[in-house]
Design goal:
The protein is mainly beta and 360 residues long. It has three helices and 24 strands.
């Protein structure tokens, strides 16, 4: 009997422990806010102008631009600690060359992805710039996209914590030289009197227009080192990739373009044999030599008789593309396209192209 009593007492004690545990669990779940982890809240400021005339802008687009220059992970805990500081920061500095020359009129931009803020200001006559009323952060990025012959400048990460920060920016000059080149047709003959538009890739908004001489040659003085693109004005649209200029090497940009004595013409017909108007015809040509890729496109809109004609073509394979839009039974536009390879100089110069306009 005594043994049964002991077993009963042990069972009652166990049941009481379970009940206390369940009650404690309910108390914790009844207040879910206490169970959530602490999260850092991004800080943003309203758009206004600070005392130095810089502009602060907060938007998702600016945040994406900030993230594009970030190359290392941020320490969220440190950033969160910094945002608790109430003291505002002033950042000042100077923009100039490696020779100590002042650069005025340049736009200096300051980003913070964590704060979702973007500031900008213009350097003064002595190259000075100021940013005021900044919040502390470890993730600032300082950027300058020079107007002159200087390399783009980006400093990241830039830690701002003291109330008075000074940071000078030295822009590195881009070497310059004389770019020379020659334009020829597929037969190697010079292309004279053609207008070229030369635009750099690594220097913002720098371009030059030149016209080839009787030898098909051209030259541009004061041309910056780096990659560039070349296009022509006229019937064909020309695009190039792989062009690079180094003034220390002095290489010549020799290019072959689609120019020659041939023509290509034809008519567009529908499936019933009737001439087809309202179509667009494209003639594409490409060449790759010495690591340089050249692509050209000519375009023609057919007339009421469905006719098209391209002149001044060089020899070799060209891609002919004919496209037109037609509405289906529900009124939705559907594009019809025909592609055909034409060996100019070998294949017939008069073509008949049939475009199926029957909609599925």
């Amino acid at each position: 009997m005594v043994r049964y009593r002991k077993l009963l007492i042990v069972s009652l004690v166990g049941m009481a422990a379970i009940a206390i545990a369940l009650y404690s669990h309910q108390l914790v779940d009844s207040n879910p806010e206490q169970n959530q982890p602490v999260q850092a809240v991004p800080v943003s400021k309203p758009a206004d102008k600070n005392q130095a005339g810089s502009q602060i802008i907060s938007s998702s687009k600016d945040s994406q631009e900030v993230l594009s220059v970030i190359e290392a992970p941020l320490i969220t805990e440190d950033l969160q600690d910094l945002t608790t500081e109430s003291e505002s920061i002033t950042l000042s500095g100077w923009v100039g060359t490696e020779f100590g020359e002042n650069i005025a009129g340049e736009t200096v931009v300051l980003y913070s992805a964590y704060l979702r803020a973007r500031y900008s200001t213009i350097t003064g006559l002595s190259g000075e710039f100021f940013f005021t009323d900044l919040m502390p952060s470890y993730d600032y990025a300082l950027k300058v996209s020079p107007q002159g012959m200087f390399k783009r400048y980006t400093k990241f990460p830039l830690k701002l914590r003291s109330d008075q920060e000074i940071f000078n920016i030295v822009l590195e000059s881009i070497p310059q030289g004389i770019l020379t080149g020659r334009i020829a047709d597929p037969y190697g003959r010079p292309v004279t009197g053609i207008e070229l538009l030369i635009k750099t890739v690594e220097v913002d908004s720098w371009s030059a227009n030149v016209i080839t001489d009787t030898n098909g040659s051209f030259s541009v003085a004061g041309f910056p080192k780096g990659r560039f693109q070349l296009s022509i004005r006229g019937q064909q649209s020309l695009a190039t990739t792989g062009l690079r200029f180094d003034p220390d090497v002095g290489q010549v940009a020799n290019l072959t373009i689609d120019v020659g004595p041939y023509h290509l013409s034809g008519r567009i017909y529908d499936e019933s044999g009737q001439t087809f108007d309202g179509a667009h015809v494209f003639l594409n040509w490409a060449l790759q030599e010495n690591g340089i890729r050249i692509r050209s496109t000519r375009q023609f809109s057919v007339d009421a008789s469905g006719a098209f004609r391209f002149t001044g073509l060089g020899p070799g394979n060209h891609e002919l593309v004919v496209s037109a839009w037609r509405d289906d039974t529900s009124g939705q536009p559907i594009k019809r396209t025909v592609r055909q390879t034409v060996n100019v100089g070998v294949d017939p110069q008069e073509l008949s192209i049939f475009l199926d306009t029957l909609l599925d």
